[in-house]
Design goal:
Elements (H helix, E strand, L loop, with lengths): L1 E5 L5 E5 L6 H7 L19 E4 L4 H4 L4 H7 L10 E3 L12 E4 L6
Parallel strand pairs: 1-5
Antiparallel strand pairs: 1-2, 3-4, 3-5
The structure holds FE2/S2 (inorganic) cluster.
């Protein structure tokens, strides 16, 4: 599954991730800057905040209530397209996914 991360400064990183991996874990394991994932995906930190690209928003789906609550603690502005990247599981449907990264995670 291909995933593109676009950093706040516009720099772009493309990776190949395993199906079933999360957008957070794939980034951390392949040294993509801009996603921290401090809690390891337990939805306890909000340092994996990302903005789903507009073209992908429908396919990725929406956040649930507990994700919403955790995003309240995110360091950067939360928008309609904000998600915790540890809660986005990569399926073949998401091949080519583009996410944008916030300016800061702390
Ligand atoms: Fe901590 Fe996603 S990694 S909330």
């Amino acid at each position: 599954v291909k995933v593109t991360y676009i950093a706040h400064d516009g720099s772009q990183t493309d990776i190949d991730a395993d199906e079933g991996d999360t957008v957070m874990h794939a980034a951390v394991s392949q040294d993509v800057d801009g996603i921290v994932g401090e809690c390891g995906g337990a939805m306890m930190c909000a340092t994996c905040h990302c903005y789903v690209d507009a073209a992908w928003a429908d396919r990725v789906g929406t956040r649930d209530r507990s994700e919403e609550d955790m995003l309240d603690g995110a360091a950067s502005e939360v928008t309609e397209r904000s998600r915790l990247s540890c809660q986005i599981k990569l399926t073949s449907d998401l091949d080519g996914l583009v996410v944008h990264l916030p300016e800061e995670q702390f």
